[in-house]
Amino acid sequence: MKSTLTKITTRYVETDQMGIIHHSNYLIYMEQARLEWLDTLGFSYKRMEENKVLLPVYQIDIKYKNPMKFGEEITVKTTLKKPPTTRVEFEYEIVNQDGVICATADLTLVFTNALNFRPMKPLPDFLKACELLFDGR
């Protein structure tokens, strides 16, 4: 389960004046998909925050390829690129209901101690679960 697929139906409120999904909403779709990826792995942001772990965005690179419109059902593929260190890296592919790639992205988050805001290693059980995904590659 290095990858998960999340289905989302775009909403009218997410469109811009041209009737196209505004580019800022792609980040929201990716976050929703990442939360579902974590849930599938058996973790949650809430659980990490309870353990004083934050995951701020360090870097994101989005390539917008084709527009999305109101009412389309999109699928966000979320993939863990490699076992995490102090950073965790995901790649995304967003396609519409016709299978057309609308965007791709690479995202890096940094495990951060909520008490002092310093980088830290992932929680041991999270790291182990991620490493198991790469066994046997």
From TrEMBL:
Keyword Hydrolase: yes
Keyword Hydrolase among UniProt keywords: yes
Keywords: Hydrolase
One term of GO molecular function: fatty acyl-CoA hydrolase activity
Family under the similarity heading: Belongs to the 4-hydroxybenzoyl-CoA thioesterase family.
PANTHER family cross-referenced by the UniProt entry: 4-HYDROXYBENZOYL-COA THIOESTERASE FAMILY MEMBER, NOVEL THIOESTERASE SUPERFAMILY DOMAIN AND SAPOSIN A-TYPE DOMAIN CONTAINING PROTEIN (0610012H03RIK)
UniProt name for this protein: Acyl-CoA thioester hydrolase
Organism: Nonlabens ulvanivorans (Persicivirga ulvanivorans)
